[in-house]
Amino acid sequence: MITSAVSSSDSSTTTVTNSNAYDMGTEDFLNLLLTELENQDPMDPVSTSEMATQFATLTQVSQLNKTNDYLETLSHTQAVDYLGKTISYTGETNSDGTSTEKTSLVTGVVYKDSVPYLMTKDGDQVALSSITGVSS
């Protein structure tokens, strides 16, 4: 959990707390904006175009995070679709630098650091990027 505080001269404190530093919502942005407006130098105020740029950047980052979450979910769904299918995949690399092509039935899915790996009947854990063929 990331917590940051902004203090003003009147001893009030505004705290913004997020589970992810890049997952800032509109309410969080407005709280920061109000704090910035309260504490800005009246002789050198922040321009409205700069505020609009900050908000646009916040919106873009938020949308990118949502897209990444969607792609991660899609990757997990794709891994589950391989259950019960026979896959061909690149096996271990031999001492001469060549790799073997293996074929086995997918019996499960395991996750390592939130990345799905297919478990085969032979006991191998196969990354989705190593799959070279699929059959029912």
TrEMBL record:
Pfam families cross-referenced by the UniProt entry: FlgD
InterPro entries: FlgD
Keywords: Bacterial flagellum biogenesis, Cell projection, Cilium, Flagellum
Region Disordered, annotated ranges: 1-20
Gene Ontology process terms (BP): bacterial-type flagellum organization
Family from the record: Belongs to the FlgD family.
Function in brief: Required for flagellar hook formation. May act as a scaffolding protein.
Name of the featured protein: Basal-body rod modification protein FlgD
Organism this protein belongs to: Syntrophus gentianae
